[in-house]
Amino acid sequence: MKIYSTLSRQKEEFQPQGEVVTIYSCGVTPYAESHLGHAMNAVIFDTVRRYLLFRGYKVKFVQNITDVEDKIIDRANKLGIPPRELAEKFANRYFEDMATLNVMKPDIIPYATEEIPKMLEVIQGLVDKGHAYAVNGSVYFRVRSMPDYGKLSHRTLDSMQAGARIEPGEEKEDPMDFALWKAAKPGEPFWESPWGKGRPGWHIECSAMSLKYLGETIDIHCGGQDLIFPHHENEIAQSECFTGKKPFARIWMHNGLFQLGDEKMSKSIGNIVGIKQILEKHSADGFRMFVLGSHYRNPLTFSDEAIDAAEKGLERLIQAANSEPAPVKANAEKLDARSVRQKFTEVMDDDFNTPQALAVLFDIARDVNRGIEQGADVSELRHALKELSGVLGLTLKKPETAFTDAAPFIELLIKTRKQLRDAKQFKLADEIRDKLLETGVIMEDTAQGTTWKRKK
């Protein structure tokens, strides 16, 4: 198995350091409803986790919740509620959305505010080793104390220095130094520390939680490409300087960004499409198909049309997985699934190539349908289709519909409409189509004939 690492900029042979694959995934900062960028990230790394389990690995998956941060504090103050209450509310909603998307729950979900002692331990260790310094109740990491700072983002300190500046009220030695501990300000939550009352900086949270729950070196650290710098760069710096061990993470995986048109989807920009908003119109499996239809390192551009297209493909898989078994001919061939399993494993072993993995699923669905037509035994193929779809997190459940009992009548109306069209009575034919649409049935004319589906 080979995985592309942002650190080396190449695919590396995956060799976990122990019996359990350790994965740390940067979680959400819950101050508002979760959006499709969060969903994309979760689906991708849930698929990575599922595939590792399928390949026989044990996996320990940790995903944090950043429940103390400027945006949480600002919004909580505006609403007149404690920051923790706000964070818990939207963290719970996030995990509800994840369950709907069939995303496995992390093995451990540490909340930043519950891990302050470990953060203080790491910060004190960095101060003791000369990698950090205290100024007026705040503590900063001394970036120039780490010679290879910038190795993840592949940038030099001089190039980063050009855009750096010291904010008003900061007393840093160097503009590139970053906060490990922030002195308390009025109206903010705070904790006691050797340097006075304050709260942790953003970057130290993930280092402390990763070190506590996964050890000094982890197998995979994952997150969005927008976290490479400064967040993950700073995680490496403070973690490796604290432990004295390299690497902090053996593989750095970063997914491409979710886009609306030419812009990254972001709460700060305000161009948000919420998860619940999309799941009102599309199925969870359909959204997964949409995400996994693109390689995880590529950007993904959202449109309802793209998810509609994914759901059309999904229907083919659902039909093949759930169609009524046809009578098997005497002495019929039993179609073997070994070759398709091997192909699926080959493409997923190549940096989790989910578009090619989906292509394998469609090949299986085609072979199932052909086998049924020929009276062959397709039980193994059908089992493989369900199992491998599950590795990608697809349930292949038949969509719930209120039209099951009405299906024969709908089919009769479609047949009647075709007869009217053949007789060039287009007005009456269109009336049938329009009336069905009013009741929530969408008719679609294709070269192979007319199909229908329930309007979501």
Characterization of this structure:
The chain has three domains: 2-264, 3-Layer(aba) Sandwich (Rossmann fold); 304-391, Anticodon-binding domain of a subclass of class I aminoacyl-tRNA synthetases (Four Helix Bundle (Hemerythrin (Met), subunit A)), CATH 1.20.120; 407-454. A four-stranded parallel beta sheet has the order 4-3-9-10, sandwiched between helices. A four-stranded antiparallel beta sheet has the order 5-6-7-8. Strands 12-11-13 form a three-stranded mixed beta sheet, with helices on one face. Helix 2 packs across helix 3 (83-100), helix 4 packs across helix 6 and helix 4 (116-128) crosses helix 7. It is elongated. The chain is α/β, with parallel strands linked by helices and 456 residues long. The chain has helices at residues 36-54, 70-79, 83-100, 116-128, 157-161, 202-214, 228-243, 275-279, 284-292, 304-322, 338-349, 354-373, 379-391, 407-422, 426-438, and strands at 2-5, 10-13, 20-25, 58-63, 132-135, 138-141, 178-183, 198-200, 218-224, 249-255, 258-260, 263-264, 300-301, 441-446, 449-454. The mean pLDDT is 91.
